Amino acid sequence: MASATATKRSGTGKAKGKRKIRVMVGKPGLDGHDRGAKIIARALRDAGVEVIYTGLHQTPEMIVNAAAQEDVDAIGLSILSGAHNYLFPKVVELLKKKKMGRIVVFGGGIIPDDDIPGLRKKGVDRVFTPGTPLAEIVEYVHRRVRPRA
Amino acid sequence: MNGKKGTKAKPKERRKRFSTVSDEEVAALYTPADLEGSDFRKEIGFPGVYPFTRGIHSSMYRSRLWTMRQFSGFGTAENTNARYHYLLSQGQTGLSVAFHFPTLMGYDSDNPRARGEVGMCGVAVDSLRDMEILFQGIPLDSITTSMTINAPSAILLAMYIAVAEQQGVSLRKIGGTIQNDILKEYIAQHSWIFPPDPSMRIITDILAYCSEQVPKWNTISISGYHIREAGSTAVQELAFTIADGIAYVQAGIEAGIPVDKFAPRLSFFFNAHMDFFEEIAKYRAARRMWANIMRERFRAKDENSWKLRFHTQTAGVTLTAQQPFNNVVRVALQGLMAVLGGTQSLHTNSMDESLALPTEQAVTVALRTQQILAEESGVGNSVDPLGGSFLLEKMTNELETKAMRYVRKIDEMGGMVEAIKRGYPQREIIDASYHYQRLLEKGEKKIVGVSCYTSEEEIPIPLLKIDKEVERKQILRTQEVRRKRNARRVASRVDALKDASLSRVNLMPVILEAVKEYVTLGEICDAFRETMGTYIDPAMY
């Protein structure tokens, strides 16, 4: 069993000089719906991204600390409980506080369209809603996220 | 599945291979040859007769319709109580409580971990005070209540008992269900608190307590629903659910309770997914498997121990956010599967649930769907109307065979608790879920309105919004409860909880005494976290 902040990682890290994109897939909050998060973690891994999955029931603080430790380039958050309006911006806010604002934050889950503009205004780069093809998310990550040299 | 191969030149077919949503191959035609070697009386037989393949009652819906039980909860106890009164006024026949995530995870609403979650995904219940409000004006001797609660199930059951006592209703008269199925939490739904071993002890304490004190209470609702929602196949849903059931019966026996004292009060909960015949076959196979396991493996003598009673919920995961009106049709089909499969109770999802919790209007359509099935369609006029269909009986046999293979494998690992510790069912489900997603992306499986027949224009539907005031109001109430109670008695109850959890006494009476003193759910769980430890996600993917 992993400790509360331990994470599961995929990929081999450095591929000949060029560092891979490193994405943390995070599950903030208390909801246990992780089917989508796990599928996206696998799809990104299969597309050559180095993936770190936080596991369930993380606080925003736990996610940001793990992101610092793992030196990730982006964080993908998944919430299906309706708590996104509090938890997504909280992660962005903590990243800024820790001077980690360069990390791209995107998210997905059961998120009503009406909530998306507010989330974007608070620094969530992109919100994916149910039914999004995996290819679209993979393409977004490759286009939007640059590995740090 | 082997159908009879035709002898003439085969007409060209639309696809190379036809398969169920679980990707099990389906033949073009089924004939008596598919059932060769089957013994009709032993394997199919008659409803109300062992092995109950065709149903647990001889007259089924001709005597009594299934219970229409819509899973419901949001905001504060007042909000949800109003919804219950509305649903009962519209002809609903049972209650089903959805708790918000902090309650499911054993935190009070004022815990920092509950921020943003209060009342969002269910109703907030922190103390007995909330439970009193939740059931205001609802006489507990004339309704049955199902509560979807697992890790803290003993606490919510104790609160329900306390409300019944306040209403002057005898414990022998109250009826209902707690989900109380912690094994599927580790496998699929993930609302856990304690590690597997102490969790199993809480469950056997509940089995022992209820078999003496609350005889009409269904103590565990052994659930395949969430396993399926997490992405399993139909076979896996069936197999892991039955294997969980085996683990509970084994634990009850090992705790010294005679099997026929608690087994008749175990019930089941299955998913109604999208593949019509596979689902109906699944319910029939489940009944036959359970009857056989209870009679032959556990030597139960009471017929009621053999009968698999089950609740069905239509598959939330099949609902689409795109073109939400289409969901009404999906739910109607799924509800029909459950009824043709002989369910004892049914929840039909609302069309807006891939977007938010349902509005009153949406939940009314969902309830009316059941009422149309019951009152207009005629499907309940005859018992197990599809029994004897070559296709259905063949599918039932195959699901049973494949599920029993899993059950044996889990037995070999030392049972479900051990299998979970190794991550076995978890891994199987992730693989199946990813396999389906790949089929979907390749276009081999389709979702109308999402992967085909999409439309640019979306017709917006009204959504339920949880009032931003809910969190503040709920926190104020819980803090008021803490101020008004007797601090000295509360402290002694908390000590009693810790002592009991470290000894072998039954926890139920101790928890009941605590909730009556308004010790909160979070405080009780904290006491147990201290003595029992916590479970942490192994974070596999």
Protein architecture, described:
- The complex is a heterodimer of chains A (149) and B (541).
- Helices cover 36% and strands 20% of the residues of chain A.
- With 149 residues, chain A is α/β, with parallel strands linked by helices.
- Chain A has a single domain (19-143), classed as Rossmann fold.
- In chain A, strands 1-5-4-6-7-8 form a six-stranded mixed β-sheet, sandwiched between helices. A two-stranded antiparallel ribbon of chain A has the order 2-3.
- Chain A starts with 7 loop residues before the first strand and ends in a 5-residue tail after the last helix.
- Chain B has a domain at 41-68 and 142-442: TIM Barrel, CATH 3.20.20.
- Chain B has a five-stranded parallel β-sheet.
- Chain B is globular, with a radius of gyration of 23 Å.
- Chain B starts with 39 loop residues before the first helix and ends in a 9-residue tail after the last helix.
- Classes of the chains: A alpha/beta (149), B alpha/beta (541).
- The interface between A and B is large, with 44 and 44 residues.
Brief summary of the model shown:
By secondary structure, chain A is of the alpha/beta class.
Summed up, the domain count of chain A is 1
Mean pLDDT of chain A: 89
Percent range of helical residues of chain B: 40-55%
SSE series of chain A:
EEEEHEHEHEHEH
Beta-strand content of chain B: 5-15%
Classified by CATH, the class of the domain at 41-68 and 142-442 in chain B is Alpha Beta
Write the SSE topology.
The complex is a heterodimer of chains A (149) and B (541).
Chain A: E1 8-9, E2 14-15, E3 18-19, E4 22-26, H1 35-46, E5 50-53, H2 60-70, E6 74-79, H3 84-97, E7 104-109, H4 116-121, E8 126-128, H5 134-144
Parallel strand pairs in A: 4-5, 4-6, 6-7, 7-8
Antiparallel strand pairs in A: 1-5, 2-3
Helix pairs in contact in A: 2-3
Chain B: H1 40-44, E1 67-68, E2 71-72, H2 77-89, E3 95-98, H3 101-104, H4 128-134, E4 144-148, H5 153-166, E5 175-178, H6 182-189, H7 196-213, E6 217-218, E7 220-223, H8 225-229, H9 234-254, H10 259-262, E8 266-272, H11 276-297, H12 303-306, E9 310-314, H13 326-340, E10 345-347, H14 360-375, H15 390-413, H16 416-421, H17 424-442, H18 469-484, H19 487-502, H20 507-516, H21 521-532
Parallel strand pairs in B: 1-10, 2-3, 3-4, 4-5, 5-6, 7-8, 8-9, 9-10
Helix pairs in contact in B: 2-4, 5-20, 9-11, 9-15, 11-13, 11-15, 13-14, 19-20, 19-21
